[in-house]
Amino acid sequence: MDVLITGSTGMVGKSVLLECIKDKRVKTIYLINRTPLKIKNPKVSELIISDFLKIKELKKNIKNCDACFHCMGITSFGQSSEYYYKVTFEMTKAIADLVHSINPNSIMNYVSGEGTSTSQGSMIYWANVKGKTENYILGKGLKDAYMIRLGILIPENGIKAKTKIYNLFYTLMMPFYPLMKLIPLITTSSKLGKAMINTLYYPNSNKFLDNRKINALSKMHLT
Questions:
Q1: How many CA within 13 A on the CB side of residue 10?
Q2: pTM of the model
Q3: 100 CB contacts (<8 Å, ≥6 apart)?
């Protein structure tokens, strides 16, 4: 299985990357980043591009793509609506179009978030933009697609958030991790990565995966 990962410099993307490296089912990993991660692994090929709206230029560097794990994203806090729309919808559209052009039989996972509105009728701007993004991916015509409605995520294996305030939160919460991991509505970085890989092998009629479904799916290949 050959996979493409975006956002691997961030906490969510790195979670998926580490699990893909460990998983023998994954043969080739294409990383698409704006800044180099500089990871050295025989599975990994890193592609750098400054403008994701021009991502189709990378097509010649990608031999095959069976799946795309689109983990790149930004918070709406402190962002203009125009920039948030560009990163969330327009860049994701460009990525979905690239994946479809390489292999229409690909499976795409999009890391969305709890509270996303597929009806686009929410009073919250980001929820509508993410809903529009989800709808585009689901309607693109790929073999399959899953919207990862991620909630609280506990980082593992030395993974850290890119923003200082999030790192402070995780540092303060660290003593409570053992207890938090017992709560079904909370997931971990390793479970998230395993679940996303398992979407390629265990089709699900429900295309919207929250933390509870992520936890269940992460165990599928172990049963």
A1: 19
A2: 0.92
A3: 106, 140, 141, 142
